[in-house]
Amino acid sequence: MASPTLISDAPLNGASAATADFQPEVFDQHVMATYSRFPIALERGEGCRVWDANGREYLDFVAGIATCLLGHAHPRMVEAVTTQIKKLHHVSNLYYIPEQGALAQWLTEHSCADRVFFCNSGAEANEGAIKLARKYAHTELGIESPVIITANASFHGRTLATVTATGQPKYQKNFDPLVPGFHYVPYNDIEALKAAIAQLDADQRQVAAILLEPMQGEGGVCPGNPVYFKQIRQLCDETGILLILDEVQVGMGRTGNLWGYETVGVEPDIFTAAKGLGGGVPIGAVLAKRHCDIFKASEHGTTFGGNPFVCGVALQVCQTLEATDLLANVRSRGQQLRKGLKAITQKYPQLCAGKRGWGLINGLVLREDTDTVALDIVKAALEEGLLVIPAGPKVVRLVPPLIVSAAEVDEAIALLDRTLSKLA
Length: 424
Ligand SMILES: *Cc1c(COP(=O)(O)O)cnc(C)c1O
Prior knowledge:
Oligomer: single chain
Number of helices: 15
CATH topology of the largest domain: Aspartate Aminotransferase, domain 2
Bound molecules: pyridoxal-5'-phosphate
């Protein structure tokens, strides 16, 4: 036991003080301006609902950006967090961590991967996958200066390598020199991909890997074409190029299958997960098949990655997903939501061009020839008590917790209807 003087029993009032008299101006004085924030402070959540500091209720179809799979304050998460923090929350990967082993086993038994490396975010998972692919290129393929192909309009994260992998110049501006060894192609276009590989070959630049999202989330909720992915898989099998899939947003059941790669009908050599994996605790993972599971001791690492706390909670999230058959809910609620979005599109043809998505990642697509952008709708929906987010300038993205009920989907559609009726 620690000496009594080191254990204070003074009342803890930090957290309540932080939300009681919340002042955005004071916040902005102290926190970097990396986000343009909506003018509400969220204080509490339960299921698919959150409440702001003034007690106002919102239906949450953002879920921490496709992250809170079990919604807010889910009893099983509360239980897992409490149990784990009382037991052990952090040690180091210098020692065996049973919770990490159990989570890795669950993931390998429920995917095509053989082994897992844990880290803390989607970007860090993609960094790990990029390092793994580069090592594979050097040691297994004998490529001196490997190139990784990614897609235009993709999103892979904000670190230097992942922002370079991200095929959107707006995220790269002013951060050059970027990381060498990336090349971009249009998404869902096999001929463009083949031409790029041939051109790189002619320039003595060899392709080591193709890194893609099964569906482009941030880039506009654009589903991958299964035919395209099957052609890529075949091309990779013929050439030895690795197929890496970024499952950070669409993995963990969001598409109605556990992994987005099932939805496009191929198995990757390496894939990454993060957002939904911990249901909201920060965790990322690199998952690899046997042949490219080639990191050796001390070649890659992280202090926090895979600690008992996040792994204990993430394991509970995975087991809950399975035990409560959440995938079935994702599929039926997704269909219901798209039916509602279709009706909205038909009711407001002057604003809406259509809807697209899989499972519980869906987008309401706005007409290109109107001045209304997704952000206008997102702001107006917030006024009505519905949280949604843009995916690019012209798509309103809906990514509710996977536990969303039929009544809540109907409610979201009604709130969106009311929002559009005021804007139209
Ligand atoms: C959000 C996201 C990332 C980045 O994840 P972070 O946890 O924010 O680093 C990477 N790839 C995809 C597809 C994402 O949606």
